[in-house]
Fold this sequence. Notes:
Elements: E1 2-6, E2 14-17, E3 27-37, H1 39-46, E4 56-57, E5 61-69, E6 81-84, E7 87-88, H2 94-97, E8 108-109, E9 121-125, E10 129-131, H3 138-157, E11 166-169, H4 173-184, E12 190-194, H5 197-205, E13 209-212, H6 218-225, E14 231-236, H7 241-249, E15 251-259, H8 271-275, E16 281-284, H9 293-301, E17 312-315, H10 319-331, E18 337-340
Parallel strand pairs: 11-12, 11-14, 12-13, 14-15, 15-16, 17-18
Antiparallel strand pairs: 1-2, 1-4, 3-5, 3-9, 3-18, 5-6, 6-10, 7-8
Amino acid sequence: MRAVRLIKPGHPLETQDIPQPPIGPEDVLIRVKAAGICHSDAHYRAGVSPVKPLPMTLGHEISGIVAQIGSSVKNVSVGDRVCVHYLDTCGHCHPCFQGNEQFCSTVKMIGKHRNGGYAEFAAVPARSVFHLPREIGFAEGAIMMCSSATSLHALKKARLQAGESVAIFGFGGLGFSALQLAKALGAGEVYVVDLNVKKLRLAEKLGAIPVNAAKGDAVKAIQDLTKGKGVDVSVELIGLPITMDQSVRCLGVMGRAALVGLTKKSFPVSPYGNIINKEAEIIGVSDHLASEIPLLLEFARGGKLKFPPGIIRTIPLEAKKINTVLDSLQKSSDQIRTVIVP
């Protein structure tokens, strides 16, 4: 079968003809119908986040049709439309037992530690496979398995309650889903902070109150808009010290800041003024959980999570086109998501 693979960090992906992957008794073989290109894939190609073993077929956002099932598989049948939770876990260690499988002692990420969806077929654990409702297209189902699922996990970790206010820092792929999911969970006013006017216009159309950080202090703007109260929940999706700092400082009493964006840099925190005096919280967010996928799919099936025309573009399974998309992701982040259609 044809696959587009990372051969060496810092080098373009290459097309290879490799054998169709075999499956074990608890695995499922999926004929890939859509594979999303994530910003993380650009980091993998660049060597910022190590991929092993190499060569590796990237692609952790996968949807498709079940082509084969292992002898022990009961949750899906051949011909089913499915999408894939990207973690391969043991299912029986303490973190898995408690529903925190991202900390499984043997966890592997599909498309990073085992071959993923930039191919005609992908073999994945049956426990990671979920039925994709017919109301959801394959392209939407694929990209929901990363950015949308992580956004929902962040809001869940922040314990968002109906009527509470939310500030979302960054309106790229994750922010686009976070806004809609916050509304689906019953949030009150949702503020979206970004520098890009075009993104802020779309956020406003989707029901957010835009905050243009290019025009001044975003924290002061949020404080003014909330009459000095601050917000109940903030979600930082960029991974910059300045926005992490802002996500903490914009909180009100008992506020919770969920940090999702990745960075190795630190940011200062005023313990008394920003945390202790408000009994506020800073919460780390890592990946998402299989148990959250059904709710995410139900929101999309019911129209509470939508992907308007122009948000998703498709390309064929060709190394040159995929590398071009990864080049653009290294330079900037936009709302448009690219999906490979083999």
